[in-house]
Structure to design on (1345 residues):
């Protein structure tokens, strides 16, 4: 059964320059107990998509259409308070990118974790909540006594671990990790990925991992979604997508990023030519066509290609998928 | 230098010129009532903002104010039916100071040329616009007979000025439009002008002079327009004296001895040893002048002194170390509900005499004078008080040996000392001096009921000399000895013959029984805090709240307190009676005589007749017969009864005042507690906010 | 380093600063133009005897270093010598005026902080709303108005035209006898000057509170808090406000010395007999001993306020490195 099912989601930013269609008709599925990766370049809308699961969009960001079914309920139809109390953190929690500023600098770490518990189980005692918070810290390999310290006294990696501990505080069914390892050094990245893998196995977590670093997703995920200019252009099982990328963008992305092993060897890698499109005024037709090596006339015309199943659980939105015979 | 309120040119003021013309020169117009005070209370209300003080006069919060109305307020005051204005010339004057020590103004012809270039008529019409008058002598008309009317004057004329320049050799020999220096033969060096810009009147007058001089081919430097601090630094404080012309101004005392101070060579301190160039900062050095200036300060008779003053003025007019330009006229205001105010020379409508005489127009006596003053009272310690506004209060409480005709500064009137003699005297060291014998009144008593005697005055002089009190150092500088003759007679020996020496020693008398305990502590002594603000004057001190008000009440034991028993009579009849208190004393004496001595009706009637004769002199035809007198006596008895009642009520008043004082103290301490408390609350709220937010986390 | 050592260090540092301020204060007035005798002489005519006596009284005949030591001693014992103008002991004059200034500043500061903060938070909470727009405009307007002019306007309208409030002073003249009525009388007199000084500060507080809150609301940890399910109010009052308080506290310390500025003008307009008015009149009369004492007190207030902020920061901002 699908834990999370997003259909035709549209999230637009209303700016003084016009409407930015950051997420423009996205379908997205998370099966229970799996972890799903979401990859793409900066500005492709992947963080917006992640935030929209929790309705955490900035003031000018609006959900213009689509639905979000979580455990069979349409949670977008809940009122603000219900959504805040029942969905946020309780059902879906989030590990934010680079925990530097994601933790409030003026509160102790354990208090911040305990606050999350308090918000969703008001009847607990403060001492219980603190005990839970320390347990959680221990689970992410932080000395529980460190909880009495402030975020600035933690290293980057520790902050990220504390963030993970906080995300687990209310036993959520789904954890969204937005760039969980970005801005950390390689060794710490590896440790964090090990931790996430371990926690996933121990707690049978469902996860959405958002990253521009496709190699991280390769390590952590069962499924992979590739997003480009506000749309999902390819999704499928991790091995299928990696070994046989069907979209030209996916292919470019995979060859752009080195694997963790590559990074250690510091080998060179190639780039996708050109720049991502301006979402204020995306190109007609396939949004990738200006950068696509295989683009033809049809690609330049409307309508934009829809996702189609090209093989078992492997979808691609392309007129000329790689490996297809013309 | 004195500060002047700004006069602005408003069209409406042109009307004023005609309004003020008749007041020049200030003349004695009115009678003054010698008894007083006629009002019951005198409240000084402190307004530290003149604008607001004027609003308070308009609303009736005050009925008399101390400061001159600025020009823009005069029109408003004239239009307000509740406000009466009156004007008076200030005790001071404005002039062009000329540096006699620096070329080319060290040349007398050059100075005379400058004098010809000052257009006083234009200054009067265009700048002063009714708020001042032109003058030629450094002795303004307010000083009365001291001004010499026959001194050399300088007609405003560019031609005459040019002629003077030519006479001094400042001619344009090379015909390049710039006059040449008679010594070097080159074009003249710049003449340095210092023109005060903080005073628009002086600025304008100074700029006109500079322009006139320039037009005659004399180069001017800078036409420097500067403020007082800069001016005093350059003009008065530096030995170099790098200036030629300065727009100066002086406040004066009642005597013309400033002539000697301003221009005697010993008042010039070229090295600035005393911190500045001295009063004679123009550096006028002239031995003839010095002779007359010395005489001005040493001559013992009025005639000799006046001759010296006239000579000094003549020399100044001839030599031109300064060009007197104009004196100021101030307009002051009071509420229409009050009457019998006295517009005294040099002070104006808010004079001592006003508070002494004024009463509500609707009644003959009583009422509360609410007098707005524009500055705080710095202290009520009579030994340290130096501030004009402080003296506004203190001179109502304290008395001095004599006073002067409010309409004539040169006319001394006996007061606490009813009379005096001035005789020649030679000191043991052979210095010529004078002996002054004061005869004091015998019925003056201090506010704490201790009788006044000449010993108090003797103590005052000795105390000031022993303690070296700066404020009075000049008053006692010539006193050689003070000798107590009896309880009401005192001799003061001065080792100067100066006519003015008699004026120097007219200082407030201290109550010996209080000040002998103050001793060396005079500078820190606070008479209000000690509850010892005791004087002799017409007003008694009740209460002072710093920055707010001073409360005085009429001193009913004042020896010149009017007899309000006769208040059924009209003011004109009282005016005839002149000294009703004297009458009352005589009636009381007669009454006593009746009780003690009268053995037979005939004796009594003869005494009545005697009394009647004297009473007749005083009250005219009102007391005709013994019966009348008997009636009077009866009434007097009744009066004594009311007086007793008054004493009772006064006692209760005093206790009321005591409670008031303690209430006030309670109020004050609660006020300061409130201050501390509000800071405390602010800190507490802050602390709570911090605490709460910490706790929440 | 422990918090205690940090605080001790700040106190020590404050003392050093105070010493420098004291010394500077001494030097400035020795270098200032004009000498005291001449200041007095320009107001009246002095005889040489008087000049000598004044020089002796004020100790001006002594060498500078002796004067300096005497100055240090007298300042630290709160004895500021005698006024050139009134010849009164300056310390006593200051203590007489201090309660009035504390009352005026305390009350107006209290209300300005309270209202400024509350409306600032509400404006930030309702950002973009009509309320926000109105309060920001009013704040900018009141912030920009010259205090002197505003005070005069208030007196003219409130005191003269409508006659609702007294024109000047801290009490009715004569004051009411009943202490309770006396308090009301004081409040009645405090109203207009208090309101003027309140408006002088209120706008700044509101704008600052609003902008620091809005700034804080854009931080990442606010998104985290929202994600955690914290309500909008909790986000604002707990997560954002706690962070916005840091600049607020600094501002209190910076405002208090600046407030003296406003107090000078307000007290002058309203004849409110406090230190501000004393400063103004001392400037008018070049009364150096008074100015010297007042500058010292202002320096002291500034240094103490900074010390308090340092200490409070030590408590409320965990990031402070001791």
């Amino acid at each position: 059964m699908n834990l999370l099912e997003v259909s035709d989601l549209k999230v637009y930013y209303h700016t003084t320059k016009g409407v930015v269609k950051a997420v423009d008709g996205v379908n997205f599925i998370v099966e229970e107990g799996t972890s799903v990766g979401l990859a793409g370049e900066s500005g492709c809308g992947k963080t917006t998509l992640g935030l929209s699961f929790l309705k955490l969009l900035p003031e000018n960001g609006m959900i213009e259409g689509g639905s979000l079914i979580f455990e069979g309920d349409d949670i977008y139809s809940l009122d603000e308070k219900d959504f805040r109390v029942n969905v946020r953190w309780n059902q879906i929690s989030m590990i934010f990118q680079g925990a530097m500023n994601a933790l409030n600098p003026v509160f102790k770490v354990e208090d911040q974790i305990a606050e999350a518990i308090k918000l969703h189980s008001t009847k607990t005692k403060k001492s219980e909540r603190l005990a839970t918070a320390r347990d959680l810290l221990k689970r992410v390999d932080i000395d529980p006594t460190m909880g009495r310290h402030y975020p600035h006294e933690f290293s980057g990696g520790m902050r990220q671990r504390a963030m993970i501990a906080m995300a687990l505080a209310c036993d959520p069914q789904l954890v969204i990790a937005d760039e969980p390892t970005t801005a950390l050094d390689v060794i710490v990245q590896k440790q964090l990925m090990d931790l996430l893998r371990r926690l996933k196995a121990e707690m049978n977590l469902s996860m959405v991992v958002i990253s521009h670093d496709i190699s991280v997703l390769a390590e952590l995920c069962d499924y992979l979604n590739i997003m480009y200019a506000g749309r999902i252009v390819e999704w499928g099982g991790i091995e299928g997508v990696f070994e046989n990328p069907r979209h030209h963008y996916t292919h470019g992305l995979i060859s752009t990023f080195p694997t963790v092993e590559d990074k250690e060897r510091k080998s060179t890698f190639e780039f996708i030519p050109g720049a991502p499109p301006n979402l204020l005024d995306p190109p007609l037709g396939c949004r990738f066509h200006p950068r696509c090596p295989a683009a033809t006339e049809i690609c330049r015309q409307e309508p934009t290609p829809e996702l189609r199943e090209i093989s078992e659980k492997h979808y691609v939105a392309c007129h000329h998928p790689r490996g297809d015979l013309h | 230098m004195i500060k002047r309120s700004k006069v602005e040119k408003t069209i409406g003021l042109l009307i004023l010129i005609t309004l003020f013309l008749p007041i020049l020169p200030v003349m004695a117009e009115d009678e003054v009532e010698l008894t007083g005070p006629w009002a019951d209370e005198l409240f000084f209300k402190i307004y530290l903002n003149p604008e607001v003080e004027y609003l308070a006069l308009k609303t009736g919060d005050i009925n008399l104010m101390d400061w001159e109305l600025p020009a823009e307020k005069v029109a408003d005051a004239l239009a307000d039916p509740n406000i009466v204005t009156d004007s008076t010339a200030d005790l001071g004057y404005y002039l062009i100071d000329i540096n006699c020590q620096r070329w080319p103004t060290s040349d007398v012809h050059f100075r005379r040329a400058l004098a010809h270039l000052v257009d006083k008529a234009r200054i009067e019409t265009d700048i002063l616009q009714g708020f001042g008058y032109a003058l030629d002598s450094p002795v303004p008309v307010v000083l009365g007979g001291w001004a010499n009317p026959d001194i050399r004057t300088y007609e405003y004329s560019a031609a005459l000025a040019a002629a003077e320049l030519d006479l001094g050799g400042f001619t344009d020999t090379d015909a390049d439009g710039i006059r040449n220096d008679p010594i070097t033969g080159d074009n003249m060096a710049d003449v340095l002008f210092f023109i005060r810009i903080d005073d628009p009147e002086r600025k304008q007058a100074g700029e006109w002079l500079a322009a006139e001089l320039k037009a005659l081919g004399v180069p001017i430097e800078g036409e420097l327009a500067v403020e007082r601090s800069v001016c005093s630094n350059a003009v008065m404080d530096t030995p170099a004296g790098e200036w030629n012309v300065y727009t100066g101004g002086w406040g004066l005392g009642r005597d013309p001895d400033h002539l000697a101070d301003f221009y005697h060579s010993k008042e010039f301190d070229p090295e600035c040893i005393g911190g500045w160039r001295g009063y004679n900062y123009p550096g006028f050095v002239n031995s003839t002048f010095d002779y007359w200036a010395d005489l001005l300060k040493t001559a013992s008779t009025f005639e000799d002194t006046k001759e010296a003053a006239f000579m000094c003025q003549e020399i100044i007019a001839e030599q031109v170390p300064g060009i007197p330009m104009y004196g100021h006229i101030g307009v002051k205001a009071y509420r229409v509900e009050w009457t019998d105010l006295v517009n005294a020379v040099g002070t104006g409508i808010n004079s001592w005499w006003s508070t002494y005489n004024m009463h509500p127009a609707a009644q003959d006596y009583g009422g509360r004078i609410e007098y707005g003053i524009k500055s705080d009272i710095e202290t009520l310690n009579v030994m340290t008080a130096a501030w004009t506004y402080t003296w506004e209060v203190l001179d109502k409480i304290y008395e001095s040996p004599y006073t002067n005709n409010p309409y004539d500064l040169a006319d001394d009137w006996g007061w606490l000392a009813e009379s005096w003699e001035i005789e020649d005297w030679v000191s043991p060291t052979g210095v010529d001096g004078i002996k002054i014998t004061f005869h004091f009144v015998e019925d003056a008593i201090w506010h704490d009921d201790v009788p006044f005697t000449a010993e108090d005055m003797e103590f005052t002089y000795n105390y000031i000399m022993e303690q070296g009190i700066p404020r009075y150092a000049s008053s006692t500088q010539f006193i050689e000895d003070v000798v107590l003759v009896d309880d009401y007679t005192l001799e003061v020996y001065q080792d100067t013959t100066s006519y003015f020496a008699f004026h120097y020693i007219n200082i407030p008398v201290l109550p010996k029984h209080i000040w002998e305990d103050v001793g060396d502590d005079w500078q820190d002594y606070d008479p209000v805090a000690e509850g010892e603000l005791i004087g002799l004057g017409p007003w008694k001190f009740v209460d002072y709240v710093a920055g707010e008000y001073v409360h005085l009440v009429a001193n009913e034991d004042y020896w010149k307190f009017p007899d309000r028993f006769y208040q059924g009579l009209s003011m004109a009849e009282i005016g005839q009676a002149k000294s009703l208190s004297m009458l009352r004393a005589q009636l009381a004496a007669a009454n006593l005589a009746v009780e003690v001595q009268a053995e037979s009706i005939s004796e009594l009637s003869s005494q009545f007749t005697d009394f009647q004769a004297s009473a007749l002199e005083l009250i005219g035809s009102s007391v005709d017969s013994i019966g009348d007198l008997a009636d009077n006596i009866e009434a007097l008895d009744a009066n004594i009864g009311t007086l007793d009642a008054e004493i009772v009520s006064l006692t209760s008043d005093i206790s009321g005042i005591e409670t008031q004082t303690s209430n006030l103290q309670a109020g004050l301490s609660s006020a300061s507690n409130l201050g501390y408390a509000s800071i405390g609350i602010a800190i507490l709220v802050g602390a709570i906010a911090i605490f709460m937010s910490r706790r929440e986390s | 380093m422990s918090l205690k050592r940090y605080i001790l260090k700040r106190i020590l540092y404050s003392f050093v600063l105070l010493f420098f301020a004291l010394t500077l204060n001494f030097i400035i007035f020795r270098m200032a133009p004009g000498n005291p005798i001449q200041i007095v002489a320009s107001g009246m005519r002095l005889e040489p005897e008087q000049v000598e006596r004044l020089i002796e009284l004020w100790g001006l005949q002594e060498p500078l270093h002796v004067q300096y030591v005497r100055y240090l001693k007298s300042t630290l014992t709160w004895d500021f010598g005698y006024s050139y103008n009134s010849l009164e002991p300056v310390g006593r004059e200051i203590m007489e005026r201090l309660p009035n200034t504390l009352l005026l500043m305390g009350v107006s500061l209290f209300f300005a902080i309270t209202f400024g903060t509350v409306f600032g938070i509400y404006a930030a909470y309702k950002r973009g709303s009509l309320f926000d727009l109105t309060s920001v405009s009013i704040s900018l307007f009141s912030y920009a108005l010259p205090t002197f002019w505003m005070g005069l306007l208030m007196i003219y309208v409130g005191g003269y035209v409508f006659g609702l409030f007294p024109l000047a002073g801290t009490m009715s003249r004569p004051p009411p006898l009943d202490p309770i009525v006396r308090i009301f009388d004081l409040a009645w007199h405090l109203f207009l000057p208090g309101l003027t000084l309140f408006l002088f500060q209120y706008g700044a507080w509101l704008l600052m509170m609003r902008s620091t809150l809005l700034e804080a609301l854009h931080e990442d940890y606010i998104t985290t808090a929202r994600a955690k399910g914290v309500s909008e109010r909790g986000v604002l009052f707990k997560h954002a406000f706690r962070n916005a308080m840091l600049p607020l506290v600094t501002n209190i310390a910076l405002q208090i010395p600046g407030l003296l500025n406003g107090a000078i003008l307000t007290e002058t307009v309203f004849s409110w007999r406090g230190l501000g008015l004393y400063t103004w009149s001392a400037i008018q009369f070049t009364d150096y001993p008074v100015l010297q004492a007042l500058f010292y007190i202002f320096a002291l207030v500034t240094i103490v306020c900074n010390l308090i902020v340092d200490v409070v920061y030590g408590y409320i901002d965990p990031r402070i490195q001791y």
Residues 1-28 of chain B have pLDDT under 50 and may be disordered. The first strand of chain B starts at residue 41 and ends at 46.
